[in-house]
Amino acid sequence: MLFLHLLLAILAITPLTDARIRRWKCGSTSPTKGFLDGTHYIIAMEKSDAASRLHTREEEPYLPRISFPVVFHILDNPYDIILTEMMLAEQFDILKTTFAAYNIDFYLQSHYYYEQSDWAAGQDYLEMGRQIRVGGYDTLNIYILEIASNKKGPDEEALGISSFPEWSEHIDFQADEFWEDGVQLTLNALVGNPFIDQGPEDEGKTLVHEFGHWLGLMHTFHHGCHPDFEHGGDMVLDTPPQYKKLGSRWPNPDTCHPPGTVQQCSADLGFPPNLVDNYMDYIPDACALSFTKGQTVRMK
């Protein structure tokens, strides 16, 4: 029976492997005006704090350790439950270990299984959130599904999608933004999936990338080569702007680059080389190794 079950699982997901060349890392939609307004406000605070510390010669500000509960929602899981729980445990450990270095902790609150093929296919994401989302804005809800969904609908290419935090005078727990808050991770990006050829996205770091979005980070290439770092790239002052994805959008070569070897924004205009190991770029998992200090402050 176990062999038959595993055989059926392999047959059930064969179409996913055929779509390999169409995958790309992240389908998160463009940040809203509310998010960008909040980002500009935070940048002003960051610059004011940096100027104050420069004047008083104080050390870097102390950033307290913060902790988030994590809830996994597994939609129409085509695998054996025990096998999936093993993969979830490994995926959670990668998330926890990665962010521990930045004084950000997680604890696994719970996980749930649902037989909802329409939700698993990226349909009616808002209604799904209304029915199964858990906790407040401080709870990281992670949805494991076959196809991710953004404002435009199901995105068969994206490995993951995250909401962005919203800037608002008050929190509306009945707003669509609240029910859509969370991270989606497709089966293609779930670490340790033995049935899918994951290629360079096989170390579980898509979830790290998406959690960066959930805490307010944009792609390092989002705003291009603006000479003021406040307006270029990801709008973080110590992250060099770049004008496009550094790495792996299928079927581009999936390779890591030595530091200082990629220069997308003009050196003649004073731009430094690209970062080549940043979690918020599109690069193979093996290359993604760090956040900058500025990105860490922004997440906090």
Automatic annotation (TrEMBL):
Keywords, in A-Z order = Disulfide bond, Hydrolase, Metal-binding, Metalloprotease, Protease, Signal, Zinc
Instruction: Specify the signal sequence span.
Output: 1-19
Question: InterPro entries under this entry?
Answer: MetalloPept_cat_dom_sf (IPR024079), Peptidase_M43 (IPR008754)
Q: Does the keyword Cell division apply?
A: no
Which positions, given as ranges, span the membrane?
none
One of this protein's Pfam families, by short name?
Peptidase_M43
Please give the Gene3D superfamilies that the UniProt record associates with this protein.
Collagenase (Catalytic Domain)
Q: Which residues form the Peptidase M43 pregnancy-associated plasma-A domain?
A: 200-300
- Which PANTHER family does the UniProt record give? METALLOPROTEASE MEP1 (AFU_ORTHOLOGUE AFUA_1G07730)-RELATED, PTHR47466
Q: Which family does it belong to?
A: Belongs to the peptidase M43B family.
Protein name stated in the entry: Peptidase M43 pregnancy-associated plasma-A domain-containing protein
Organism this protein belongs to = Phyllosticta capitalensis
